[in-house]
Amino acid sequence: MGDLIVVEGLDGAGKRTLSAGLVGTWRAEGRKVATLAFPRYGRSIHADLGAEALRGQHGDTASSVEAMALLWALDRREAADELREMLSTNDIVLLDRYVASNAAYTAARRHQDAAGPAVEWIRQLEFDRFGLPVPDLQLLLRVPVALAAERARHRAATEADRERDAYERDGDLQCRTGEVYDGLAQRHWMSTWEVAGPDTDPQQLAVRISNLLHDGEGVTR
Questions:
Q1: Which domains does the chain have, with CATH numbers?
Q2: What is the tens place of the pLDDT at every residue in 55-101?
Q3: Which key words tag this protein in UniProt (predicted)?
Q4: Cβ atoms of residues 126 and 76 within 8 Å
Q5: Fewer CB within 10 A of the terminal residue: the chain, N end or C end?
Q6: Strand, helix or coil at 220?
């Protein structure tokens, strides 16, 4: 059974770039690595409905905190069997966003912290009721909110399919979400957490993560 590792962070934090560096390092070491990004836009009706809602479609769906959280959660539930198959055939499965993303944004929209009822609701929904695999390690890519926002704006300007959505344009929400992420990492919510900064070297981080997991410090399923 492979290790399930998740990269979390604000929109525009640089998760995709860091993930590519981690994957490249592990593959160079001879490890078999699979990747998956959530939401699964273009593959999941729930993810696509969520994206459309954040761009003003589907009436008042986006205004409902729980409705949006359920769409993101159902996307992952739909992928549960795929995830288990990936874990059974790879040494490492690296995810760009997972359940903690839903917990962080849902709590932030409700003006709650990492110990609040929104986070517990997401845990019960996705891990208990939907039976999603529990991560072995979660990595928070922590960057200043202003830097993440600038990267998101640049991405929207240079990539035709990456128009900023309502969450990305809401600076206050991004600030609150970052605070919830910090709380989840401090509490080691659902697994061991590591925190990386914008200048973290992916090769050194890959070694650090491998050592944590091999030393038995990560959560085992």
A1: 3-214 (3.40.50.300)
A2: 999 999 999 999 999 999 999 999 999 999 999 999 999 999 999 99
A3: Kinase, Transferase
A4: yes
A5: C
A6: coil
Give the type of residue at 76.
R
Residue with tokens 């128009």: 163
Cα angle: 19, vertex 96, 69; to 5 degrees? 165
Residue at token pair 């998760």: 15
Average pLDDT over residues 122-133: 98
Alpha helix positions (H), 44-170: 45-54, 65-78, 80-89, 99-109, 117-122, 145-158, 166-169
**Which residue bears the tokens 């409700």?**
110
Could you read off the pLDDT of 155-206 as tens digits, one per residue? 555 655 556 667 777 889 999 999 999 999 999 999 999 999 988 999 999 9
